[in-house]
Specification:
single chain, Uridine Diphospho-n-acetylenolpyruvylglucosamine Reductase, domain 2, Uridine Diphospho-n-acetylenolpyruvylglucosamine Reductase, domain 3, Vanillyl-alcohol Oxidase, Chain A, domain 3, 5-stranded antiparallel sheet, about 25% strand, binds flavin-adenine dinucleotide, FAD, FAD binding
Length: about 500
Amino acid sequence: MDRRQFCRSAAGASLACTLPFPFLSAAHASTSLRAVTSDGAETELERAAVREFGGELDGPVMIAGDSGYDAARRIWNGMHDKHPALIARCASSRDVVHAVTFARERNLLVAIRGGGHSWPGKSVCEGGIMIDLADLNQVDVNPERKIASAAGGALLNNLDTASLAHGLVTTAGVVSHTGVGGFTLGGGFGRLNRRYGLAIDNLAGARIVTADGKLRTVSASEEPELFWGLRGGGGNFGVVTQFDFRLHPFNRNVLSGLIMWPMAQARDVLEFYGEWSEKVSNDLYTGPLMVTTPEGDGLVGMEVVYAGDPALGEKELAPLRAIGKVAEDGIKVQDYMVLQTHEDATFHHGVRSYAKNGMVKHITQGLVDAMIEAYRPDPRLAFFTHTAGGAVKQVGELDTAFPHRNAETMVIVAGAWLDPAEDASAMAAAREWFAALAPFTGGYYDNIEFEGDSSAAGNYGPAYSRLQKLKSQYDAGNLFRLNSNIKPA
Ligand SMILES: Cc1cc2nc3c(=O)[nH]c(=O)nc-3n(C[C@H](O)[C@H](O)[C@H](O)COP(=O)(O)OP(=O)(O)OC[C@H]3O[C@@H](n4cnc5c(N)ncnc54)[C@H](O)[C@@H]3O)c2cc1C
């Protein structure tokens, strides 16, 4: 609902419209709290019912004005400044059951916040309920079974740190303050995915609270169809309270780092990459990036992780390192967590950000030419890739609900800036850059997409009709709709 429309219809509209959040300004003055239903209509929540709900939870229930409310409603992307009517900061799976039940019974708009990294801001909502999992961040590792059990709000750093402490690892993404929840449910690309597959390929099971308020255990043998849908179907089927990942023995001292060249050498670097990349071993993860320094110097680079014997990695990387005149070669044997955290500060919380991506089947000469021509010397923007292929490609197209198995890579243009006055120009520049690459892509990765909503159904490809049946079975009322939404059949 448009805020203006809401203000026109609400009693005391003139006062409410001058305040930052009309729903909650009214809350403290009356016996009810204004909220929004899943289809955008206004509704009123009895304050007594809200108090009773708060009393049932181990964690706090917050409304505007409560200490902690403003911090909790903020998510990573500073472009999203929304005010849920309630925030249920869950401390247990039991709390999640209560929160889902409370929301369903009142048909409230529901946002689920895992790590809060959703680019389009789907983990927060205006006027509904935010089911906030930030305190459910424990990761327990069973080294004998080689399983890491991550709570629904754990961050990738929690997962990597707990697993590596036992000499084990699973695929995690490239910025360590990203949430395990959204990351995994959308697929989960990381620097080890050519070796071990996507995060969903390592998922052995999960615990999920579905729209009916039931806490279910799912795996290949328990509710297998729901388990299939979780692996790529986003948050469509419920609130996942636990993810169980298969782990792999891993020497954390890996040959890894960044290698950079001046932009003038982009053609040599990218043409070499186009020929070489589809032939490299599954131990090698490397993909191009293009950035501009604050001083305006363009750099083309590669991020490298070699997940095997460093001596073999040195041999495999030798031709890459021999290209032209390298500006900086930071590839060396170093702790895996150095690279896993080196972008954390750049992508800090509160930055304003936009991203567009597309999946690429083959790195053709046409794409290489487009990469070079599309480059914009704008320090707010970057081009980068998430390399796939390898183990990602070895999983069948419909073995999970993630459809883009035949892609070799994902091309991404993202922007980051601080001043709201730059929103329009930064987004326009990123769109223009990506538009030059778009003809070489087919489908996109929903997790790194600011505006995929209108094409969500098509992007699930052949998995969509099966996902729709599953959605009808577990969430016919579409309670969980702030995601890459699957419409119930
Ligand atoms: C800086 C940055 C770096 C990134 N790097 C990578 C990367 O390397 N690889 C990659 O694959 N992706 C990456 N991403 C994309 C990332 O995977 C998505 O943004 C993902 O949605 C983040 O998960 P989250 O839990 O932090 O997000 P949230 O904003 O909390 O949630 C995102 C979506 O997932 C749902 N959700 C979250 N947790 C749960 C849960 N427990 N149960 C049910 N639904 C849930 C939410 O409802 C929402 O729809 C990155 C994003 C950012 C901002």
